[in-house]
Design a protein that fits this description.
Layout lengths: L2 H10 L6 H19 L14 H16 L4 H26 L12 H16 L1 H16 L3 H31 L1 H16 L2 H12 L3 H25 L3 H9 L4 H12 L1 H17 L1 H5 L7 H9 L3 H33 L6 H24 L13 H18 L1 H24 L3 H16 L1 H17 L2 H31 L1 H16 L2 H12 L3 H25 L3 H9 L4 H12 L1 H17 L1 H6 L4 H11 L4 H37 L16
Length: 679
């Protein structure tokens, strides 16, 4: 062997540096550059200053507005969609919630609506859920929000029905085609991370204000969860099961209907639940464009800082979310029990359904004849005393815990937020861009780095680099906290059924209660600060991440867990060595969803002291001259989401690949007979 060949062989055999060492080197270089060049080339843009890109967006908005009544596509296509959606919503309103002219009351009064809700729930999920459904509907009226609650249900069901129909179909398509996944995923990223305030104004240009615009806004935000989670559920069906069905002669269509969809049912229902929660969380924001429902009372209460009324109307949304979640889950369990032959006597059930159906028809008939059964009674009223009690409690907490909350705010701000923000926002832009590219390349490889490069270039094009770095700081801190909570509570819920039953209603409340409801007491406790914005993001983003982690841990094969226990593994070892590694894909999905939900709260955070991109979006929505800058801020938020999503996805894939190779059986090839013949 020549000297050159020996040298090449030695270089090839040097193991690459571990990734953590490369990351440490990147951070050291970054901190050194920050110390030397702090405050230079940060691309800071004053609030009132516009770039040519912002001005161009304003001009496009003006031209679009002028052509709305003359352009045939805008007038007939979008106008036709608006008329159909308005007609659907108005039909259901006149049927169950609003006066149907010339009747002074709806076609079906409250008594008939409650009876229908109970009967439908019994048919789908059993008598226990039927009782819960009746009590939930009655609570809407006792809280004082009967009509508004039904209007919210109408908008939610309309949007969710469309989202589920399209989302499950697209999710299946994504699971079966890598090309479709590559095309659809960025679209879902935009739909889920684009702040709702950004697309509310374009929606009013297309659909005007009212039920149609509210339904479309809700649909845009509610579609991504069911699509992503359906694709994830289909992909995670074990390959051995698919190979067995193929060997039995099943076609791809039969394989989908008989194997993949049934085995992914639990995960798909999680997606449907997440879509419902996302749709309900839009109730308040949809009210800004005259969407009917509970969002209106919430906004009216918050305009006067009336925490009590805001809490009561928000509580109605929470009850609605818990009801929908429990009914869909129970319906799925009943369907699975029927398939396995474990359901109760079907003949007896059919008789009961027929009998209760007759009683429901009688209730509907009576609600059309008698006024007291058509208009919900004013008594008993539990909403007013509850609002007064909540307002008094809020005032007491704000006045007595000011010192503690200030200490917590200062600890997080000075100990974590300020140092990280200084590194990101006060370093030269080219240094931060280089760091982002290096981290992306180390964690995710060249394709991740390429995506990061494109996002960086486009971020620079928005003219909002410095604001984007401030927003990135709060996003990273909030996401780390969200995933910490997700791992702790998700594992706990998966391993303890009682904990799951106790915690899940709180998760539903955190995800569905309008952010404006808990922002008022949060403002009183923590003031107008970045920490308040982070709290809002955590409350909203932690529930879906916790649910997905719990679903992933619960879905780990019991055989693997039992094998680990029989081998003498402790509870901690079972969690860290078996369940968490085997649920890696669900945990990655939880991280992505948590990250995207945090970014979705950036605008809300801008209202309570978050500043940066969130504040610019709100300013663009409320001030015509800043419309272009607000849209650019929304684009910047989407770019941050895509960049962070791709880095985490590619990093997870690269981490999982060595483990998969190590777990796979290998076949040793015999060594060459004359290994040293050419030496």
């Amino acid at each position: 062997m020549t000297v050159a060949a020996a040298e090449r062989s030695r270089v090839r055999n040097i193991p690459p540096a571990p990734r953590w060492a490369l990351l440490v080197a990147v951070v050291v270089v970054w901190v050194g550059g920050w110390l030397l060049l702090r405050g230079q080339a940060t691309l800071y843009l004053p609030r009132s200053e516009l770039t040519p890109f912002h001005t161009w967006i304003n001009e496009v908005r003006d031209a679009f507005d002028a052509a709305r009544d003359t352009n045939p596509i805008l007038k007939y296509f979008f106008g036709g969609i608006r008329e159909v959606l308005d007609a659907v919503v108005v039909f259901w309103q006149q049927l169950i919630s609003q006066p149907a002219f010339p009747r002074p009351v709806p076609e079906i009064g409250w008594f008939g609506v409650v009876a229908i809700a109970g009967w439908v729930t019994y048919a789908l999920a059993g008598w226990r859920m039927a009782v819960f459904s009746v009590l939930a509907f009655l609570s809407f009226g006792f809280l004082g929000y009967w009509e508004d609650s039904l209007d919210t249900l109408i908008i939610t069901f309309t949007a969710v029905a469309i989202a589920v129909a399209f989302g499950i179909s697209i999710g299946i398509w994504m699971a079966r085609s890598r090309t479709v996944t590559m095309i659809v995923t960025p679209v879902l990223d935009v739909m889920q991370t684009m702040p709702t305030f950004v697309y509310l104004l374009p929606l009013t240009l297309l659909f005007s204000i009212g039920p149609a615009a509210a339904t479309v806004a809700t649909l845009i935000y509610a579609l991504p969860p069911v699509t992503r989670i359906t694709a994830h559920g289909i992909r995670t069906v074990r390959q051995t099961v698919l190979e067995a069905s193929t060997s039995l002669g099943a076609s791809k269509r039969q394989q989908l209907r008989k194997v993949q969809l049934p085995m992914a049912k639990r995960t798909i229902i999680v997606g449907v639940n997440q879509t419902m929660m996302a749709a309900l969380s839009m109730a308040t924001i949809a009210a800004l464009i005259n969407g009917p429902g509970l969002g209106g009372p919430v906004i009216e209460a918050l305009q006067t800082l009336d925490v009590g009324d805001a809490f009561v109307s928000g509580l109605a949304i929470v009850i609605m979310a818990i009801l929908l979640d429990r009914v869909t889950t129970a319906a799925s369990e009943r369907s699975e029990a029927e398939m396995r032959g474990r359901a109760s006597d079907p003949r007896r059930r059919r008789i009961l359904l027929a009998a209760t159906g007759v009683l429901t028809l009688v209730a509907i008939y009576l609600s059309r004849l008698r006024l007291e059964l058509a208009e919900f009674p004013d008594r008993p009223d539990i909403g007013t005393p509850m609002a007064e009690a909540v307002q008094s409690a809020t005032d007491w907490v704000v006045s007595n815990l000011d010192g503690l909350t200030s200490a917590i705010t200062n600890l997080v701000s000075y100990g974590l937020l300020n140092p990280l923000q200084s590194l990101l926002a006060n370093s030269p832009w080219w240094l931060v861009a280089g760091v982002l590219l290096a981290v992306s390349a180390v964690l995710g490889g060249r394709w991740s780095a390429l995506t990061t490069l494109v996002c960086i270039v486009l971020l620079l094009g928005t003219g909002l680099w410095n604001d984007a770095m401030v927003t990135l700081t709060m996003t990273l801190v909030a996401t780390v906290l969200v995933m910490g909570l997700a791992m702790v509570f998700g594992v706990w819920m998966a391993r303890d059924r009682r904990a799951d039953r106790a915690i899940r209603p709180l998760l539903d409340a955190g995800q569905t209660i309008p952010p404006f409801v808990y922002l008022v007491p949060a403002l009183g406790l923590f003031g107008t600060t970045r920490f308040t914005a982070i709290i809002a993001a955590i409350v909203y983003a932690a529930p879906p991440a916790i649910k997905l982690v719990a679903d992933g841990i619960r879905g780990v094969s019991p055989t693997a867990v039992e094998a680990a226990i029989s081998a003498g593994s402790s509870r901690w070892q079972v969690i860290t060595k078996v369940q968490v590694p085997m649920a890696r894909s669900s945990i990655v999905l939880a991280a992505n969803q948590g990250l995207l939900f945090v970014l979705a709260m950036v605008v809300i955070g801008g209202l309570v002291g978050g500043g940066a991109l969130g504040y610019l979006v709100v300013a663009g929505f409320s001030q015509a001259q800043l419309f272009g800058k607000g849209v650019a801020a929304g684009i910047a938020i989407v770019l941050l989401g895509i960049m962070l999503d791709r880095i985490t996805q590619r990093a997870a894939a690269r981490t999982a690949a060595p483990a998969a190779r190590a777990a796979a059986p290998t076949t040793r090839r015999p060594a060459p007979a004359a290994a040293g013949a050419h030496t």
